[in-house]
TrEMBL record:
Residues 250-289, 612-651 are annotated as: Disordered. It comes from the Bacteria. This is Uncharacterized protein. Residues 261-272, 616-625, 634-644 have a biased composition (Gly residues). Residues 250-260, 273-285 have a biased composition (Low complexity).
Length: 679
């Protein structure tokens, strides 16, 4: 009876029910919690360089109650072990009564001296319980903050570049070397920001479920029951060994792991065993299973990609050529000519790591007779790559890549996908900052995508760097746009227009999927999701497409977003939730990118058998959230996706700053297509 009273008291103390779905009751809460405040910076570059750290700080803050609960569970278990009394008696000691807000502990004569310690522990339990209740709100706040941080990158990049250029112009001696290093860092920061944003979102998506587990562990520790230990989420430090359980007496017990010989005994004679981390692979293992698409569609897409690659190479844009040939190789991995073309183009693009990967694959498996000239050329290039430092990309290289982005932006504009056009123009301008007209094109595309703030920023910037003679007509247009903005004439979304445009983007994405143009499909799904941030079915579409395009980490991040936010009671989502959970189980078991090619472990198979979803590459569409969903399943066919990813899709609050440019520039660091190499 006393044991039952303890459990009821702790539930009362927590004031919430963290269910298996990861949701929590937040009744009684008034305002969302505020995350960590941003520091003050003296320079724009300092602020830009600190963006990844600020994203990490948001994750640490969101996970703080979970980490507190993890540590407290171990402390409670240790305290109970120190008392060395029967678990039932220990539970009875922890009967909590509230009297005028004070926590009291029932007195037992034999342990009266530990009453103060117990009261302090129970006060901690109450504080942690309240914190766990707020985890979903913290996750939402942190997600929004991460999105805002990523969206600050375009403007910070512009400000940093201007700031550092001014400093460099007056630098003397060694200070110029440091400023040049800062300029190089600023150019590379977008890629870092993008990667950190995806990483932060992936961790945040797991926190509600971890809060549930941490609650269960704390309850088990109080009742003297064993529980599976958890790592502290933010720091990554294990409270105890990852595969250990805390037994009822407070000691760690190793979980038995099968040996490699297939027996049930631990691999090392009796000690703790730690499973080896999955070994990442750079390219699909030779002969690995790949997604199955209609042969005619594959042949057509591969031919199209080769045309695009050859055209890019003819313009001197070897980086885009390598991207196109690589995408073709992913679709047709038995065609080793594509591996050679990818490696050769990557070498000419000064993308040395990728060049070495693909040329080594080609020389290892290519027929020595059939490909004698190509193998000789590959061997020569590999020797150079292993002997000399990788050469830096030249301004001419970047200008050629920018020209390709401009061509793609023009196509997107004709499709009324002005958000995508703004993103491409902005990435082109980052690569070729001497072409001031690109800043004007960013501004116009942003204006057409109804992002007045971004448009105004770039119009103002263009006016400050434009050549009065060479850009006379663009300056006249800039003045007209600026006058309209001052008069409040910026275009805005009318009733239902945002939903209509999202549907148009969805339809365009599905058409790209049918053509196996997975890169473009993902980008369009992402822009649709940005417009309708509560329609989490779009997160599934992104994840499903990325999985089929063999972009493992991007797929996993979006599947986690979908599973966390989709309503499991909605029949439209049941199949997709099972699919997403099944793939996530495989990713958790094997790691990325091995999960794309390896077999699921027994644990993964068990999870699927228990309803966590079969590991499938497909899945339907369907809506989610408050917005009217896009049409479900129209033309889904052999959908797959890749493309440059964005963090904007995780913003689930309508008050989040919207910006097609800013949104598109969350892809800013990609400067092209996403890499399939996830080594």
């Amino acid at each position: 009876m006393r044991r039952t009273l303890l459990t009821a008291s702790v539930v009362l103390l927590f004031g919430c029910d963290l269910s298996a779905s990861g949701s929590a009751s937040t009744s009684g809460t008034t305002a969302p919690p505020e995350g960590p405040a941003a520091p003050e910076y003296e320079r724009a570059f300092d602020q830009f360089a600190d963006v990844p750290n600020q994203m990490t700080a948001q994750v640490v803050w969101a996970a703080e109650p979970i980490d507190d609960a993890v540590r407290l569970a171990d402390e409670v278990a240790a305290l109970r072990a120190k008392l060395d009394i029967d678990p039932a008696d220990f539970s009875a000691l922890c009967t909590v009564a509230f009297s005028d807000g004070a926590i009291e502990v029932g007195a037992v004569t034999e342990v009266e001296e530990v009453k103060t310690e117990l009261e302090a522990t129970l006060a901690q339990i109450k504080e942690v319980g309240v914190g766990l209740q707020r985890v979903p709100s913290r996750v939402k706040t942190a997600n929004k903050a991460v999105g805002k941080l990523a969206m600050s990158s375009p403007k910070l990049l512009l400000e940093s570049t201007k700031e550092l250029s001014r400093e460099f112009a007056v630098a003397v001696g060694d200070s110029g070397v440091q400023i040049q290093a800062d300029i190089d860092t600023a150019k590379a920061l977008p890629e870092t920001v993008k990667a950190e944003a995806v990483k932060a979102q992936s961790v945040l998506a797991t926190l509600p479920d971890k809060a549930t587990q941490a609650t269960s562990n704390l309850m088990a520790a109080i009742k003297g029951e064993s529980y599976e230990a958890m790592e502290t989420t933010a720091s990554g430090e294990a409270a105890v060994e990852a595969d250990a359980e805390l037994a009822a007496d407070g000691t760690a017990v190793a979980a038995a792991a099968p040996s490699e010989s297939g027996g049930g005994e631990p691999a090392s004679g009796g000690g703790e065993t730690t499973p080896a981390a999955p070994t990442a692979v750079a390219l699909p293992p030779k002969g690995a299973a790949t997604p199955s698409f209609p042969p005619q569609a594959v042949a057509a897409r591969v031919a199209k990609l080769q045309q695009l690659g050859n055209a890019a190479a003819a313009r001197g844009d070897w980086l885009s050529a390598a991207d196109a040939f690589e995408e073709a190789y992913v679709l047709a991995p038995d065609d080793l000519t594509l591996a050679f073309k990818t490696g050769d183009a990557a070498a000419k693009a000064k993308d040395c790591t990728r060049a070495q990967l693909y040329l080594e694959r080609f020389t290892q498996f290519g027929d020595q007779t059939m490909f004698a000239p190509e193998i000789a050329a590959s061997t020569k290039t590999l020797g150079e790559l292993k002997t000399f430092e990788c050469p830096a990309r030249t301004p001419e290289d970047e200008a050629a890549r920018a020209a390709t982005l401009v061509l793609e932006a023009e196509i997107l504009g004709k499709e009324d996908d002005w958000g995508g056009a703004a993103a491409n123009y902005a990435m082109a301008y980052q690569l070729d900052p001497e072409d001031a007209k690109l800043a004007f094109e960013v501004a116009v595309a942003s204006w057409n995508s109804r992002e007045c703030g971004d448009a105004s920023t770039y119009f103002s910037h263009f006016a400050s760097v434009a050549d009065p003679r060479a850009h006379r007509s663009q300056l006249r247009e800039t003045k007209r746009y600026q006058e309209e903005a001052e008069m409040g004439m910026c275009p805005t979304w009318g009733p239902g227009e945002k939903e209509t445009h999202a549907r148009d983007l969805y339809t365009q994405a599905q058409s790209r999927e049918l053509e196996l143009d997975f890169q473009a499909a993902i980008s369009k799904y992402e822009r649709a999701y940005y417009l309708l941030p509560t329609n989490h079915a779009l997160a599934f579409r992104i994840g499903d497409s990325a999985w089929k395009a063999q972009l493992c980490e991007q797929a996993a991040a979006n599947f986690r977003t979908f599973v966390t936010n989709a309503d499991p009671a909605d029949p439209r989502h049941s199949t997709d939730i099972q699919t997403a959970k099944g793939i996530l189980a495989k990713v958790d078991s094997l790691g990325c990118p091995n999960a794309l090619y390896g077999e699921a472990t027994a644990a993964t198979a068990t999870a699927a058998d228990e309803g966590d979803g079969a590991v499938e590459a497909g899945g339907g569409a369907g809506g989610a959230g408050d917005e009217q969903p896009p049409p479900s399943g129209e033309g889904a066919g052999a959908s797959a996706g890749g493309g440059t990813s964005t963090v904007a899709c995780s913003v689930t609050d309508d008050s989040a700053p919207a910006g097609a440019l800013t949104f598109g520039l969350l892809m800013l660091a990609g400067l092209g297509r996403a890499r399939r190499r996830e080594a």
